[in-house]
Design goal:
45% helix; globular; alpha+beta; single chain; 25 helices; 3-stranded mixed β-sheet; 676 residues; binds zinc ion
Length: 676
């Protein structure tokens, strides 16, 4: 499970709130050229709705030579799999990318024209989304130049691309949605991703798995996680597994090569064993081996270096079976992790004092390790748009039996906040008091929100006996409800003096800052990411509007949250924070009940009733007010470059460089990591 950046802006610090998409309270960035000499430049450019940011790896040189070598091998393993997500996202992505890169590398014509600028913006948007569908809205990107101009670029740079693929790039009807969540259309046949052969329907997929899933198996494998579902020569459905010798073999062979090197410099026997199991999984495609690896990984908690490498998140599959490739290489941030250990040690107290029904509480919450780490590199679904927190493994039975690992990506969060400013806050805060509270406590508030969401939220609550997994019972609503549930756990305890007693915050003012920010974003600010007239589709944005809108309606009679208009602008102002805490507690109890009982109709009513439809008047106002601030709603990152220092065929050190140009990095990766 991912946590995506919530809050941008120096104060707002990408508050890693809940595995969720960025709350959009960014500030307009300082103009790039004002960066003082010698100061690290975080933001490098902005185009369309995107901004490109750099991050640093603090304390890299404090690592031992062996640890540096380990990080380097994992860095190579990460990047070696990058092509896989391009093909998973859409069947024509790799050939389209190669054509775009061919033009960028060899076109010698006029590069000052408006058309060329539009072409470069399109190409960078495709690089940013690992394909031609927007990384967030999942909608096919529209080139802002003509097909004639594109064909001219192809011919003048001796680059080929099949005409039928060119026409798909430019039409507005074919393969429009990478992931279709609209039950009115067939979820699978209506999705453009490449997890299912064209023409396969939702019913066929459900029938296929209903035949092979053993419902009584309390420790089920993650069916369908690492394969493409296609027809065999007799038309029967079959899984085409991603493994050495199978689909995506060339990339996976490279990953295995570097993991084998990593094994030779592992920090511990546990870590070494983990590498052996992961390599075995990649060589066999066995999902039992994947579970064995995850059990070993979740129990390996004492090393400085850690990593994610595999087919992890199922957000890209409307039915939630197949996972996208992703990798994150992590280095432990000792000081910050110590601060958060308090939460981990008190996880049972939170469960016992939660507002959920007693029969849905876990008698014993199994250990949830929570660390703040610094990222050394990211790839696949984690880059350039990156999560800011991760909670894994995803298999519910492994989490229940062995626990899970939660991490916040400290240097990513820091870079987000330093790449932004305060104008979004100035625009959407009702009063100076609200603004000053956000300015003073916002950063800590969202860090605590993230930690509570990950450590306590996702680990809490249990299913009633005999109830299927949320994916089976709540289907396409499972992700939204799960993220809403974890957010509500965090919100419920952020207004609890227990956090003050634990020394995690100085007063409930921190909790109030988070409540302000959550309502500000959930009812207004996040709408700046939605196209006029569109509905909310992304699971995290749905969960945030659901929580904020339900709370607003529930508290109307007592004016808990008040809709105010000042200078013709709308604001939602909290009048009673403790009453709002109770309302959050009530909704938490209901969403936990829905998950524990697998109550699809109630889940459907909540999500469709509060999380999908957009208030058109508010939306129009938000788009107008934020447009004036000229802030890109989405941010993504350029990775550092690790370079080995070799003497006598031995790696004796690893140097770190911080590239400045996003396009250069994409072309470099295309040159060094194109294996499919
Ligand atoms: Zn989450």
């Amino acid at each position: 499970m991912k946590i995506k950046n919530i809050l941008f802006g120096s104060i707002g610090l990408a508050l890693l709130a809940s595995c969720s998409s960025p709350k959009s309270e960014e500030s307009n960035m300082e103009p790039i050229d004002t960066v003082a000499q010698g100061e690290f430049q975080y933001q490098t450019e902005q185009f369309a709705d995107l901004k490109i940011i750099r991050y640093q790896i603090p304390d890299f040189d404090k690592l031992t030579a062996q640890q540096k070598e380990l990080v380097y091998y994992l860095y190579k393993a990460s990047l070696s799999g990058r092509d896989i997500i391009w093909d998973q996202n859409y069947k024509h992505n790799l050939v389209i990318r190669r054509a775009l890169e061919g033009i960028v590398s060899s076109y010698a014509g006029d590069k000052s024209s408006k058309d060329w600028q539009s072409f470069m913006v399109y190409t960078k948007r495709v690089w940013f989304s690992n394909g031609i569908h927007h990384h967030y809205s999942m909608t096919k990107l529209k080139p802002e130049f003509s097909v004639e101009y594109f064909n001219q670029l192809l011919s003048e740079s001796n680059t080929e691309l099949a005409p039928e693929i060119v026409s798909i790039m430019f039409d507005d009807k074919t393969d429009m949605k990478r992931v279709n969540l609209d039950p009115a259309k067939d979820l699978i046949a209506g999705s453009a991703n490449n997890f299912y052969e064209d023409g396969i329907t939702t019913k066929e997929v459900e029938d296929y798995y209903s035949r092979i899933i053993d419902r009584n198996d309390s420790e089920p494998i993650s069916y369908g996680l690492n394969s493409t579902l296609r027809r065999d020569k007799n038309g029967k459905l079959m899984e085409d597994t991603w493994k050495v010798g199978g689909k995506y073999s060339r990339s996976i062979e490279e990953i295995v090569k570097w993991l084998s090197k990593a094994k030779t410099v592992a920090e511990s026997d546990e870590q070494k064993r983990g590498f052996e199991l992961l390599i075995h999984y990649y060589e066999t495609g066995s999902l039992t081996a994947w579970d064995d690896y995850n059990i070993q990984w979740v129990r390996t908690t004492n090393d400085v270096v850690d990593y994610i490498n595999g087919f992890i998140e199922v957000y890209g599959d409307a039915l939630g079976y197949r996972a996208t490739y992703e990798s994150i290489v992590q280095i432990k941030d000792f000081e910050a992790s110590e601060r958060m250990k308090v939460l981990q040690d008190n996880v049972q107290w939170f469960e016992d004092n939660s507002s959920i029904l007693p029969e849905h509480k876990k008698e014993k919450v199994v250990g949830v390790t929570y660390k703040v780490v610094n990222v050394a590199v990211e790839a696949g679904d984690a880059s350039p748009s990156t999560p800011i927190g991760v909670n894994l493994p995803n298999a519910n039975w492994i989490r229940a039996k062995y626990g899970s690992k939660s991490v916040s990506l400290g240097n990513i969060v820091e870079a987000y906040s330093l790449a932004g400013g305060k104008s979004m806050l100035e625009e959407f805060c009702y009063s100076t008091e609200e603004f000053e509270r956000a300015d003073k406590y916002g950063k800590l508030a969202s860090k605590l929100h993230t930690a509570l969401h990950e450590v306590v939220g996702h680990a809490s609550g249990k299913l009633e006996p005999g109830v299927g997994t949320p994916k089976e019972t709540l289907k396409s609503y499972a992700n939204t409800l799960e993220e809403g549930r974890a957010d509500l756990v965090a919100l419920y305890f952020l207004m609890d003096n227990k956090l003050v007693d634990m020394g995690l915050m100085e007063s409930l003012e921190v909790g109030k800052a988070e409540y302000d920010s959550y309502i500000r974003n959930g009812l207004m600010a996040q709408l700046r990411r939605i196209d006029p007239g569109a509905e909310i589709e992304e699971a995290h944005m749905r969960n945030r509007q659901l929580v904020a809108a339900w709370a607003y309606e529930r508290g109307k009679a007592e004016n808990v949250i008040e809709k105010k208009v000042k200078d013709g602008k709308t604001y939602f102002v909290i009048n009673d924070y403790l009453k709002l805490k109770e309302i959050f507690g009530e909704l938490l109890r209901e969403i936990q009940r829905i998950k524990s009982k697998g109550d699809y109709p109630a889940g459907n009513a909540l999500v469709e009733g509060y999380g999908v439809k957009v208030d058109q008047a508010i939306h129009k106002e938000v788009l107008e007010r934020s447009a004036k601030l000229n802030i890109a709603p989405y941010g993504g990152f350029i990775n550092p470059r690790l370079i080995p220092v070799i003497e006598n065929d031995q790696i004796v050190d690893i140097k770190v460089e911080y590239p400045m140009d996003f396009s250069d990095q994409m072309l470099e990766y295309a040159k060094d990591y194109s294996f499919l």
